[in-house]
Design a protein that fits this description.
- The chain is of the alpha+beta class.
- The chain has one domain (5-84): Double Stranded RNA Binding Domain (2-Layer Sandwich), CATH 3.30.160.
- The chain has 1 helix and 3 strands; from the N terminus they run βββα.
- The chain has one helix at 53-84; strands at residues 5-12, 22-30, 36-44.
- The chain has a 3-stranded antiparallel beta sheet with strand order 1-2-3.
- Strand 2 and strand 3 form a beta hairpin.
- The radius of gyration is 17 Å and the shape is elongated.
């Protein structure tokens, strides 16, 4: 059995003195073979919105995970193309 781990790091841009209302996320996938992939996301709070940090964190994290998933699919496609020596188009399957 292999175990892959994902860590999500959240940053409030307000903590760094700029980009008020911006939350950034960095998702890092570490595979059992030592490969790592990164994904990034951000969320911006409109000035009229209530200050609810958890919502910004959720949105930034979701966007980072979506970016990470896209990068993983791209890496997978590249790996298959390297083996097959031909263009590959992955088909979306829903379970």
């Amino acid at each position: 059995m292999n175990t892959w781990k994902v860590a999500i790091y959240l940053f409030d841009a307000d903590d760094h003195g700029h980009d008020t209302g911006v939350t950034k996320a960095h998702a890092v996938l570490s595979t059992s073979s030592g490969t790592t992939l990164d994904g990034y996301g951000r969320a911006c709070r409109a000035p009229r919105d209530d200050d609810v940090p958890e919502i910004g964190e959720e949105l930034a994290a979701a966007r980072a995970l979506r970016n990470l998933a896209d990068r993983l699919l791209s890496a997978t496609s590249d790996d298959i193309e390297a083996i097959e020596h031909d263009d590959v188009q992955l088909v979306r399957l829903w379970s």
